[in-house]
Design a protein that fits this description.
- The complex is a heterodimer of chains A (230) and B (416).
- By secondary structure, chain A is of the alpha/beta class.
- Chain A has a domain of 109 residues: Rossmann fold (3-Layer(aba) Sandwich), CATH 3.40.50.300.
- Chain A is built from six helices and ten strands, in the order βββαββαβαααβαβββ.
- Chain A has a six-stranded mixed β-sheet, with helices on both faces. A four-stranded antiparallel β-sheet of chain A has the order 2-1-4-5, with helices on one face.
- The two termini of chain A are 20 Å apart.
- Classes of the chains: A alpha/beta (230), B alpha+beta (416).
- Chains A and B meet through helix 1, helix 2 and helix 3 of A and helix 10 of B.
Chain lengths: 230, 416
């Protein structure tokens, strides 16, 4: 009996061109992100990885091709922000925490936007910060008062806040040292394995190993090529 | 923020001073509804012009005039403090001011005495009380007059409450006038028919092109026949004294010269246009400051706004929070600027008590209106700047880490 897979994000023949660029950034990219996937997209800087993540996260539109979230075409989705709020989580290279909010409040923010009540929100945020192993005395500190590795862990907790179907992580370890990178990857992979959150991760490294990745791609000259499919 | 505070302070100070100056002009010249001023246009200011007293009775008989008051304006000093002394016929003055003049203490003026009443403002400032003896020193004529304060009054108009009101002869003495000369005639009319009355008065004094060759007192259209309704004391008002056409032409009698803009123009050399230009320049500088501050705020929080968008805040909510936070920011800065401006008015010598032609201009009296004006301007400007910024935000590039590729200007926010 064939297992039915749930397609969270589906890109079909997606191309993206910018008015000022000579050639398309993305050429006929087709990619499916299924529940529980751990997808690694490799490629050098400025090659189109972030553009691909932006299109997957409904932050940008393709020049051609189709993008669907849970089977719904992006054009049919009235409120893209609602999809980002409830279905997707983002982790950035520069963490992008709100500096005027405490670490706890940063994690609470997506839940607040989603209308989760105060006490439940606080409890869930604390549990998430606990799961990313941020010590409780740092919960009420501001992001600028903790280390970069800890900031990235807070960002991961924030990405997980509304129990997303997928996390789009744009070079999440690029600003971190090796030891901290390992810790951050461990947390992301744990979320992928234990929470069944699909993980789409971009990296500039062509050699780094991601033990639990289900699919790996290389993007070059706008073309997405399969690298490893486990 | 500092630029916005400084601009708001400049706006509040300028706005207060312009309003208070305008108010002095309005009060002195009777911009108030239902009061018409008749004065000589041949003088630089209505205060320094002269009119024959005999004009008053005839003009007072014009249909539609319910009361008239010949007055002598005598710029003077009390203890070196400039003050406007107004010489009046008490009963006539009371009729023109009926309803607005309230005696705060003591009693009203009586004819022929050396009594005077003081407006509350100047009474408080100089410590004048009922029974105080005051030496008035004329500034346009070498004359002094000693009067006794018999009462203090309140009208609610800033300039009148800053005046000393005395019998006509006191004013005439201080100005060096004879008993048949006055400065202005104020008329109380029905506001609805003010324009018609103005024309009728002009007809009586020959101020229009079809004027008669001479004007004889008692010849008004609705003359009471020369008998004073107020008793023999006022009979001189109705003396049958002919005024030649040449004299009328020399006097260049004007009816209602009293727009405050004219006042400013004729007393300060400040035209209404230049006042508006000053106001517009200050307004523009404040507007530029608001827009600049807004753009700075948006730019400085750009990454934060992008992050909010990526974690799921709707574009609509981001834009509305942008507008609201900008308005809040501007209002706080406007409030701080206003407080700074009013404080500066209070602490800078000469700003809190400007003097224009013997009337004290008190900008702090308009502090609350200046506050309302400042907040209105900054919030409307910030609202417009916010709408513009939010529009630009929706169109412009997103600089955060995700869209780090090609030309930054190529990114377009796709949120719906």
């Amino acid at each position: 009996m064939k297992m039915m897979t749930t397609k969270i994000i589906e890109l079909s023949d997606v191309s993206k061109s910018y008015p000022n660029s000579e050639s398309p950034v993305l050429k006929n990219v087709t990619l499916s992100v299924n529940a529980g996937d751990f997808i690694v997209i490799r490629g050098r800087s400025g090659i189109g990885k972030s553009t691909l993540l932006r299109i997957m996260g409904l932050l940008d539109s393709p020049s051609s091709g189709k993008v669907a979230i849970e089977g719904r075409d992006r054009k049919a989705i009235k409120d893209h922000s609602e999809i980002r709020l409830r279905k997707l989580g983002f982790v950035f290279q520069q963490f992008n925490l709100i500096p005027s909010l405490s670490n706890l409040e940063n994690v609470e923010l997506p839940m607040e936007l989603a209308g989760v009540g105060g006490s439940e929100r606080r409890a869930r945020a604390e549990a998430l910060l606990h799961s990313v192993e941020l010590s409780p005395e740092k919960w009420t500190r501001y992001p600028g008062k903790i280390s970069v590795g800890e900031q990235q862990r807070v960002a991961i907790a924030r990405a997980l806040a509304n129990s997303p179907l997928a996390i789009l992580a744009d070079e999440p370890t690029a600003s971190l040292d090796e030891k901290t990178s390992d810790k951050v990857m461990e947390i992301l992979q744990e979320a992928n394995r234990e929470r069944k959150v699909a993980l789409v991760l971009t990296t500039t490294s062509l050699s780094e190993e991601y033990r639990y990745s289900t699919k790996e791609f290389v993007i070059s000259d706008g073309v997405l090529s399969s690298f490893i499919i486990r | 923020m500092l630029i916005l505070i400084a601009s708001s302070a400049a706006f509040a100070v300028t706005f207060s001073i312009l309003l208070s100056t305008q108010a002095v002009g309005s009060n002195v010249l009777g911009d108030q509804s239902g009061v018409i001023i008749v004065s000589s246009g041949s003088s630089r200011t209505p205060m320094t012009g002269t009119l024959p007293l005999s004009l008053a009775g005839s003009i007072g008989n014009v249909s539609g005039v319910s009361a008239f008051s010949p007055e002598v304006l005598a710029p003077s000093t009390i203890s070196n403090r400039p003050v406007m002394v107004v010489g009046v016929y008490p009963q006539l003055f009371a009729k023109v001011e009926s309803g607005s003049l309230k005696i705060s203490s003591g009693s009203y003026l009586t004819d022929g005495s050396n009594a005077a009443i003081a407006g509350d403002t100047i009474a408080n400032e100089l410590g004048l009380k009922v029974g105080s003896s005051v030496l008035l020193v004329g500034t346009l004529n070498s004359a002094v007059a000693q009067v006794t304060i018999v009462g203090t009054f309140h009208t609610g108009t800033a300039s009148l409450d800053d005046e000393i009101v005395a019998p006509t002869w006191v004013g005439q003495w201080l100005r060096g006038f004879d008993y048949q000369t006055i400065s202005i005639i104020r008329l109380r009319v029905d506001p609805q028919s003010a324009t018609g009355v103005e024309q009728a008065v002009l007809n009586v004094v020959g101020g229009n092109s079809s004027s008669s060759s001479s004007f004889s007192q008692g010849g008004g259209s609705s003359s009471s026949g020369g008998a004073s309704p107020l008793g023999s004391f006022y009979s001189s008002l109705y003396a049958n004294t002919p005024i030649s056409a040449a004299e009328l032409a020399r006097l260049n009698i004007q009816v209602n010269p009293g727009t405050s803009g004219d006042f400013l123009a004729r007393t300060l050399g400040l035209s209404q246009g230049s006042v508006w230009i000053i106001a517009a320049l200050v307004f523009l500088s404040l507007s530029v400051a608001v827009i600049y501050a807004f753009q700075e705020t948006v730019m400085s929080s750009r990454d934060e706004l992008d992050t909010l968008s990526m974690i799921g805040m709707s574009s609509k909510r981001i834009k509305s929070s942008l507008v609201l936070s900008g308005i809040l920011f501007s209002v706080v800065a406007g409030l701080a600027g206003w407080a700074l401006g009013i404080t500066l008015i209070e602490i800078i010598p000469g700003l809190s008590a400007l003097s224009i032609v013997f009337y004290v201009v008190n900008p702090t009296a308009f502090a609350l209106i200046a506050l309302a004006g400042t907040l209105l301007v900054v919030s409307v400007e910030a609202g417009l700047a916010g709408l513009y910024s939010s529009f630009q935000y929706g169109r412009s590039p997103s600089p955060s880490s995700l869209p780090s590729e090609p030309a930054a200007g190529d990114y377009v926010e796709e949120d719906q």
